[in-house]
Amino acid sequence: MNEKEFFKVIIDGLVGKPQGSRVAIAATVKDVWGSAGAPQLKLKTTDTVLFVLDVLSVEPTDVLDAPQGKDVAAPAGAPTVQESGNKVTGLDFSKAPKKAPAKLQVIPLVEGDGPKAESGRLVTFNYYGAVWGSKKPFDSSFSRGAPVPFGVGVKGLIPAWDKVIPGLKQGSRVLIIAPPADGYGSRAQSGIPANSTLTFVVDVLGVDS
């Protein structure tokens, strides 16, 4: 519910509504899109638009500070997670193969015992992501100081996450190795060359159940 990503009038109408609600919001085009209107939709600023929204998931309120469950030993050849306190600070690839794996892999590091993440719901994560073999992350929520909620299974994430996260239990930590087809493919991103294999440490801290 971020005003940079969604219309303010919609946010104002949805905040506080419980999961399972259906909400109808009527507003002028100017209220929604501003004084420029929405000429791309052939709408005038004085037109009225109606939105009908179903609240299918809400941000988890029971969020752990760190993974919680049974530790699992990673197999030989897997990158090693480097930590300081509860924060992931890096990945050590010194004992991993130089050539990145060709298939999607999910390696359990902590088996949580909370509710399972479900497709189509919001899940709160901490994560650290690096290109295979890199000493620096291209993105990390740990460096920003707070976990973040994402919708899972709604094509808002890379395919690897949508495939792997549903079914994981709250408290889990996993290592996800995503080949290009399950990452960004041939599209270069900021800090990610085209056709890169991506490596993530993901902590499942909150589940909308």
Automatic annotation (TrEMBL):
Superkingdom, natural source: Bacteria
Alphabetized InterPro entries for the sequence: PPIase_FKBP_dom
GO molecular function (one): peptidyl-prolyl cis-trans isomerase activity
Reaction equation(s) it catalyzes: [protein]-peptidylproline (omega=180) = [protein]-peptidylproline (omega=0)
Sequence segments annotated as region (Disordered): 69-89
Keywords, sorted A to Z: Isomerase, Rotamase
EC number in record: 5.2.1.8
Pfam families: FKBP_C (PF00254)
Keyword Isomerase among record annotations: yes
Occurrences of domain PPIase FKBP-type (ranges): 120-208
PANTHER family in alphabetical order: 39 KDA FK506-BINDING NUCLEAR PROTEIN, FKBP-TYPE PEPTIDYL-PROLYL CIS-TRANS ISOMERASE FKPA
Family: Belongs to the FKBP-type PPIase family.
Stated name of the protein: Peptidyl-prolyl cis-trans isomerase
Organism of derivation: Nocardioides panacis
